[in-house]
Amino acid sequence: MTQLATPTATRLRRPSLRDSRFIIGVLLVLLSTVLGAVVLSRADATVPRYAAAGPLVPGQQLTSADLVRVDVRLGDLDQAYLSAEAALPSDTWVLRELRAGELVPVSALGPQALIAVQPVSLLVDPSAAASLVQGSVVDVYVNRPAKGAAGSAVDAWQGPERVLERVSVGRVEESARVGIASRERAVAVLVPVERVKGLVADIDLGAKITLVLVPGSPTRTGS
Predict the structure, then answer these.
(1) What pTM, to 2 d.p., does this model score?
(2) How far is CA 22 from CA 15, 17, 51, 122, in A?
């Protein structure tokens, strides 16, 4: 009878430090560990940035008193916001409205030459101005006198027409002024430069002006 060949057991060999596959495997494990640690450290890192201490409006010169330092995690967006690690440049102006507590984007600031608004003082009904503060955002409506109705006893009007949308309030006069027919309150709104001429024409025409608060805008009783 033919005897079957008996298989010979292969003895397992402990990996040698000279084995290239073993060395590569160890390096990969070390590399993944280091990369993981770096990613976690960056995710946990905070950077000092500035937030608005109160409402900021276009055309306002920015000072350190207008800012508060906050430490935040922004990741790849950290360069998009104003750093609290460097001194504030002297020629720094607000180019768009910012709310209290909002992080200050670098894009919302610039030199005075880039300001695109001008303050225009409007006389409005005291009840309409009562809730407004610096930083409130309003729409501006005008009622123009009907043709042939100009004068102190106008009783015919054309409108209302919304002439400005989402403009910021730069200042609210605390006390009312005595007008011809009623007490009025002055509110300075920040008007785009190209729209100033038309609004001034409406003022000179004797139009009634109403400011309508944009929902969610800062008010005297809260934001």
Answers:
(1) 0.69
(2) 7, 7, 52, 80
